[in-house]
Fold:
Amino acid sequence: MLIVADENIPLLDSFFGDIGDIRQVPGRTMSATDVQDADILLVRSVTRVNQELLANSRVRFVGTCTIGTDHIDQQWLESAGISFAAAPGCNANSVAEYVLSVISLRAEKLCEDDWTRLSVGIVGAGNVGGELAHKLERLGFDVVICDPPRAEQSEEEDAKNFASLDEALKCDVVTLHTPLVQEGDHPTYHLLDASRLAALTADQLLINTSRGEVIDSAALVERLAEANPPTVVLDVWEHEPRINPELVEQAWIATPHVAGYSLEGKVQGSEMIYQALSQYLGLPARKKSGQFLPEPALSKLSFTSAASEMDAARVAIRSCCDPRRDDARLRHSLGMSSDERGQAFDRLRRQYPVRREFSSLKIQLKGTSKSAQDTFRALGFKIKL
Ligand SMILES: NC(=O)c1ccc[n+]([C@@H]2O[C@H](COP(=O)([O-])OP(=O)(O)OC[C@H]3O[C@@H](n4cnc5c(N)ncnc54)[C@H](O)[C@@H]3O)[C@@H](O)[C@H]2O)c1
Ligand SMILES: O=C(O)[C@H](O)[C@H](O)COP(=O)(O)O
Structure:
């Protein structure tokens, strides 16, 4: 059995090596020729999987080790009788940690010692938005959730917990977590268009870790050039990897689509597709991502009562996830030609340094308050008193 796989899928050999022969190819440029003799196709989000890629192949199973599925023509796969699996939720915690890190940076920039004073509007409350909301609520933030598809499915009483998009867009921090959906009752393509961007004010922060196309980026470039623009943090872009350098310059923090790139998140994506493929083939699935995760380089941090709760939390958060480091690397590519910038965008993703989730770090708290312990627990760190 031949498995053709994106070379950026971690642990390909460990998970899939005893299922078939593996041919690794670059996901961005994967062609019909690369897959024509494959039985199984494993991708991440940079490969368009459609009739053009697969019509002349014998592929019977496609797995994407990602949450997003907008690169897959699922309707065509179904019509062609090809089985499909995605990895819902695999890197949801990673994205939630990226957003928490950004909110901590924002509070610091505003000289706000109590970050929970910032209201947070979450647009799309599935695996990522739901995980983020859960953490923020445990921390004591005021969270406003907009998710019309879920609101419609809820009982009347629960539907009251959901706000409209316009209400969510009034929060101090607005963070987008919808899938990219082009059609239907709740399309998200250019959900934030010129008129919605116009309503954002200079004291607001807009974070996009969903898909670049959820914001009309041409309108965003214009809005950011006007007086009193909102602050923006962008991890995802229209036309990746050839992103608009002007938008990178205008963004407060600009990262190369890495919010979900914790090691845990990437490896869980591989594990979920290994499980789905094993089930499809009727094979036992005994391997678990935990057995392949190395010991983290940083495993313990200690704080005493001398450190303020927020200072300690900032240090711990940023020792795991600091989007400013990714921002600096992306900005470095701005002086390059357009082709080189696109290559640099993909290279930064391919060579992404190991990033471990908060749960990999044990926090030792000596003589600190109960409130500090609660904060670290809510963030997902392990606590040692
Ligand atoms: N930047 C990254 O590294 C990264 C990582 C993971 C996921 N993502 C993106 O984030 C998206 C969301 O991930 P998820 O795991 O939460 O997906 P999910 O499917 O679990 O949740 C998405 C939620 O969005 C809601 N939604 C759909 N249309 C909406 C609309 N018009 N307005 C408001 N809400 C709407 C859905 O009802 C659902 O609850 C993914 O589809 C992917 O594109 C990006
Ligand atoms: O949808 C997802 O899971 C994320 O956007 C994921 O991090 C994308 O990573 P890529 O497939 O581009 O490696």
In short: The domain at 2-86+263-291 is CATH 3.40.50.720 (Rossmann fold).
